[in-house]
Write a structure and sequence with these properties.
InterPro entries: Aldolase_TIM, Alpha-hydoxy_acid_DH_FMN, FMN-dep_DH, FMN_HAD, FMN_hydac_DH_AS
Pfam families: FMN_dh
CATH class: Alpha Beta
Oligomer: single chain
GO molecular function: FMN binding; L-lactate dehydrogenase (NAD+) activity
Protein name: Alpha-hydroxy-acid oxidizing protein
Mean pLDDT: 95
Distance between the termini: 36 Å
Family: Belongs to the FMN-dependent alpha-hydroxy acid dehydrogenase family.
Order of helices and strands: HHHEEEEHEHEHEHHHHHEHEHEHEHE
Number of helices: 15
Number of domains: 1
Bound molecules: flavin mononucleotide
Length: 381
């Protein structure tokens, strides 16, 4: 992996190591994928301001996210099926995040369970909650996250019904994987992935199977999601969840100023400007283009984070400059994981850290708090 200089290198390597159905699962948006593409492309339309002959010594990227100290404002976003990019993926990614001093967020739809990740890490991680119709099960997930010492709950608001990802259907994505000749071929051509997968017992949804009523296996992800996720989730439920949890609460998936106003009124600690990495409403604006108006409207009342399309340290700085207090990365760490397990995630974080550090200096700043609108030369947003 020494030859991996940027996130694109890690992506290329992951593509060679991860079976197609799981690589595509990560590397897809919904429908025409226009929002997925816009998330990345819109960062390129923002230009940074080059400054010279200012003191660039002794730089620091340290700050806080929802009051937690972080070595840089970059958390790992919750991603389902992470343990299919690499065996034991959630545990390895959480360990890499711990070493790097950034938060790891475990998805409800993870392969490794909350308890399993807690048993293999020392620092508290964050837990992401999807709300199912079975409120007893939702309540028990919240209680399990608290018992495991999770230090923030990330409540996802933008996936009560599933945006269609054509690749997942074409590839017959399911977990545990089906064994049709096509799938067997995909796996046979990825021997390292297979060997690691044979060595682990963690191959289905650890938080769900054996915990939710009448769920012993999840043969089709999309059918299960359609049956279980609650399409009637409302702001009232957010209040119920906030009270039941009682700790730091982050609302994920806000893209509209009116919704941001509602989110600010809930008493949550932060919101994440996000379109689920372009995997839900295709045709929605990119996260980075939606960020400035939301930060302007509610940034003094609730901490504003963002995710979607970040592929470099420069992108993180642009997000901070346009009003984010913190950021999350999804695919960049998944590519690292697919490329090289825990070391790959560490490398993804290190690449972003180094890019951010150098870029901050070249913009004439030494502290991350200096990444304000003033470091932007031009922005269409
Ligand atoms: C493969 C994959 C799985 C995801 N699963 C979840 C999930 O289980 N829960 C959730 O809230 N968001 C999920 N997301 C969305 C991410 O948390 C995040 O919003 C998105 O990945 C950010 O965009 P980026 O990948 O361009 O960084 C997923 C994203 C990807 C790529």
């Amino acid at each position: 992996m020494t030859a991996s200089l940027d996130i694109a290198d890690l992506k290329a390597r992951a593509k060679r190591r991860v079976p197609k159905m799981f690589f595509d699962y990560a590397d897809s948006g919904s429908y025409t994928q226009s929002t997925y593409r816009a998330n990345e492309e819109d960062f390129g339309r923002i230009k940074l301001r080059q400054r010279v002959l200012v003191d660039m010594a002794n730089r620091s990227l340290k700050t806080t996210m929802v009051g937690h100290p972080v070595s840089m404002p970059v958390a790992l976003a919750p991603t389902g099926l992470t343990g299919m990019q690499h065996a034991d993926g959630e545990i390895l990614a959480a360990q890499a995040a711990e070493e790097a001093g950034v938060p790891f967020t475990l998805s409800t739809m993870s392969i490794c369970s909350i308890e399993d990740v807690a048993a293999h890490t020392k620092s508290p991680f964050w837990f992401q909650l999807y709300v199912m119709k079975d409120r007893d099960f939702v309540g028990s997930l919240i209680d399990r996250a608290r018992a495991a010492g999770c230090s923030a709950l990330v409540l996802t608001l933008d996936l009560q019904i599933l945006g269609q990802r054509h690749n997942d259907i074409r590839n017959g994505l399911s977990t545990p994987p089906k064994f049709t000749p096509k799938h067997i071929w995909q796996m046979a051509t990825r021997p390292f992935w297979c060997l690691d997968m044979l060595k682990t017992k963690r191959r289905t949804f650890g938080n769900i199977v054996g915990h939710a009523k009448n769920v012993s296996d999840l043969s089709s992800l999309s059918t299960w999601t359609a049956e279980q996720f609650d399409p009637q989730l409302s702001w009232k439920d957010v209040e119920w969840i906030r009270q039941r949890w009682g700790g730091k609460l982050i609302l994920k998936g806000v893209l509209d100023v009116e919704d941001a106003e509602m989110a600010a009124r809930t008493g949550a600690d932060a919101l994440i400007v996000s379109n689920h990495g372009g995997r839900q409403l295709d045709g929605a604006p990119s996260s980075i283009s939606a960020l400035p108006r939301i930060a302007e409207a509610v940034g003094d009342r609730i901490e504003v984070h963002m995710d979607g399309g970040i592929r470099s340290g420069q992108d993180v700085l642009k997000a901070l400059a346009l009003g984010a207090r913190g950021t999350f990365i999804g695919r960049p760490f998944l590519y690292g994981l697919g490329a090289g397990g825990r070391e790959g995630v560490k490398l993804a974080l290190e690449i972003i850290r180094r890019e951010m550090d150098t870029t901050l200096a070249l913009c004439g700043r030494r502290e991350i708090s200096g990444a304000t609108r003033e470091i932007i030369a031009e922005s269409p947003f």
